[in-house]
């Protein structure tokens, strides 16, 4: 073998003669980016990315076709080359039209792969759907009940009819797994030997504990209350999150292996220094915001006046209060709404929410406001309490003085202040007043010791935590959730605590943080106004599945849940409504990868704005979206059957195709190799509807179970679910080729008809009945043993299978020969 | 396999899949390779593109015919006559590899005289393949630098299956194509691990490694390895078990991963026999048709849910790896075998080899340990283990840890010393068309389905592509019967009848019809013949006589 010596980026390289520059570089582990290159083929539709500079040559050369010759001096990543590639990628990206991630996914504060779990629901893979949720949110039961649903507000289905009921689907999968007693078997990394203390067992504390435990740390939760759950248990009334649901959710998290110390009050029972002394490597503060902002009003009489969290805690613990017939709730946040709805259930006839601004300005979620109104809560808006006094003589116990408010002209920031209207005062006779003016984490100083004193606080009574590192002003002490951010939704506490957990892990391990999701995203339109309605051609109106609810006249009499949850059938139907905006090639798109690597800012250089071609689903196994095609030609080149053609009527000035046609020919055998080689999401496998994003995916090499060729396959597995099958082009005997059965013939593994339990027929003519292993084995043993006893070993026989492994076949015949004592063992290979 | 063991001393594909590219002539006979072995067919097509000559012998106009240099459309069941005629021409014209025959073959003279009468003209009458085509093919094959033979069940599923294989062996031997890159005698295995199951002695006459159960030395060897006495009594072949069940000789049957109710030729007979058992145990991943009539059903794991190995058609041992857990209470087959062993034998076999604590196990719990045990049973696997599989592709024989495996067999002669040239008299099919049953029915597979469809029919892409059974029929026959494409007809044989849609096509000649066997709603095995090859007991699934009638509307 003769060799050539050349220089790439200053390194002398000796290579086999007859290779291209690209091949030499690849073998020397120098990456030259390319979109169109396929090993062993010469691109007929060059992408123009793999260009390099060669000394003595003007301009750039295609490294994929230029032979590497002796003495060449090559630059693969000079500034000029990089600039050329960036320009070329920008040109290709400018006409690439699609969404990388779906809007629901981008809007979710938890950045949960929403489209992914919806697709799992549509396929009936509820367990895997819950795994996708819990990859980023360990509280699906609660969040599935109380989430403000940022995602649904951006669902593109709104442009057709109504958004997909995403949150109901989340709740459905959580509840389904609960009622089917599913153990998700979420994996945990091996023990790190690091110990972490978590103060607070509410949403933030539980979340931090969950993610830290998964990282292999030894976590202990310190909770002041006698039970875990925090706001989930004490902040939301039972009709929103029932206690048994909280119990189950907490148990699911604790099953990871988390230590708990209950009824341990920080500052009283232990200090931060104590935790250090106990050997904790880091501490997370997630105590929430549970101290009500005081209701400061002249003449306040404390009798029959409560703050919201105090009231909810009493009620949630089953306490009974004398509340009278009429009650006023002061404040417009979500807690105020929950309090008002709870008061109705406590038997109060008339509940009025008093709020100084308009209804739409209420901080409470408007969905909650509507639900409260439906139940009979009244609203006294543009009014503010000015005084309160007890009037024992009259029919009501309290008189709440009010003054009407108006809005000022906009100030320089555009905000309108509320101003009292002079002389507009009136009063409301009530028996109970509950204030919900917002909550804080700490009122004044934190008791404890020196370290506590060093904790820097933010205005409003919250802990300072660095936005970058989640660390407080004390080293090794971190904070997250409402305690650091102020009162927000549960999902936001989850996100804050998850981020803190990532930071704590980096701190205790002295490693880099897990990188945040890349924000690079092709979009078919960032706002609804930007989205072309052409996207929805041919999609008919199909309204949401109705959430079953208990009738209000009954629901408002007790604390049971109002909403009963979707049924399996309606959940799957609802999931079918998803428009699948996000790209299912997310995990393999080369265009996205190169744009990110080469820092192409498509927000500046542009991306496709509207669909030019209809999406073609006519092929039995593949879906074609020409709007995403970059005309790299890899599909066509990879086809071993010459069964695919990619052509264009003409080309624009930049060489991009116009009138693009991607066509499968009659002789296509649906092997799917073209999809595996597509550089974008222009080609997709029809049955691969779940986008894979940050979720952990394992690729397991194995052997195809169909014919005797023994093709080597890669099983792509997420959680416990087989996502798709591909093949490694380097491995014999198939070198990346698979037939249609190899790539598409594996749905049977997750098929609902799989046998899941042993069965026996107690007597002939009786039906088969499911039994335990023990019973089935005993039944079989009894029968075989008596045959053996009566007729001898040759009255038993075994038929093994060419489908089973060599080891199993060996064991099977050994059982018959050595165990039973007969040669009556065969397999069905003759057929 | 029985045939090859006899004449060569080993019964497996002699060459490799990718070695197809090294030859210059390919004879593909009784193999619809593009549909049954698509990736192997890809190599054949690539070889043809590179100038290798592809010769197809098949009664149907299969996919490969479009790429073939020659296509011999023999009448079903006449393969033996065709091959004998090829040998006849080669010897008549002095094209045989005299040196190879001299050094590596025996019984040449007797063989030569046995085919003296098998002239191309004689064969033309039997096979309908023109004599001049036979001559041309014989010349092409014999003159090739490396001529490979590739065949599947189209050759073997006949009452003369063993003889057919022997004629092919004769052809390979006299042209010196054994042990040659790109040549060889290559049965393409239809199922993923037929090779492994056979290698492991899931055969009534052989211990693992084709060591005969009647051989005293082998018996002693296994009695020692397994620490149990070995019986003298020969076992029953699968195809013989039906009769044994019917007359009560066999009362308990354990089926692991098969579905004979659908795959057995003469299915009605099989069902009747299975129902007579005292105890039928079926271990599978679905409640298949056989499990439906079982007394005990044990839920097993699919290939993606367990560890192990499959041995492919070219004898390479490849790893199967657990990717996901089995659903519900399902268990991997190794564990099931051990659990059953414990229940049935635990108390009687104290201290039996493999016993762990007080629990009886047939084999150790992990697949890698089982492999270590089984590799001690057969020298061909002795050098293999799971560690080597991580980085190496090993074809047996691989006798020691440093041995690289043997991709091509018989490079230095055949195991039995000299290859035996068999005298085969062509005998024809057991059942031939007659006035009552005028059509020849042949059966086979389609690309999108597999075997009895347990797996493929539950995959939407595959089922969508080939959702229902059909009978391929020539236009002339369709006209004569006055049936149209897609019309439902009644096809019946002496054994049963099915209703099935007609697919009019030029893939079959007049008088021949083809039905794929994947579909239980039109199970072709209700029609096929369970007459057995006398040597290896393979049933004649590929040829039977049927009649076709229009569906009478009541």
* Strand order within the widest beta sheet of chain A: 2-1-5-3-4
N/C terminus separation of chain A: 49 Å
Q: Note the gap between the termini of chain B.
A: 49 Å
Would you identify the CATH architecture of the largest domain in chain A? 3-Layer(bba) Sandwich
> Could you say which overall geometry of chain A the principal axes of the C-alpha atoms support?
globular
The strand count of chain A comes to: 34
The CATH homologous superfamily of the largest domain in chain A is called: FAD/NAD(P)-binding domain
Structural class of chain A: alpha/beta
Share of β-strand residues of chain A: 15-25%
Radius of gyration computed on alpha carbons of chain A: 33 Å
Mean pLDDT of chain B: 87
Tally of separate domains of chain A? 6
Query: How many helix segments of chain A?
Result: 27
CATH class of the largest domain in chain B: Alpha Beta
Radius of gyration of chain B: 24 Å
**Strand order, largest beta sheet of chain B:** 17-19-18-21-16-20
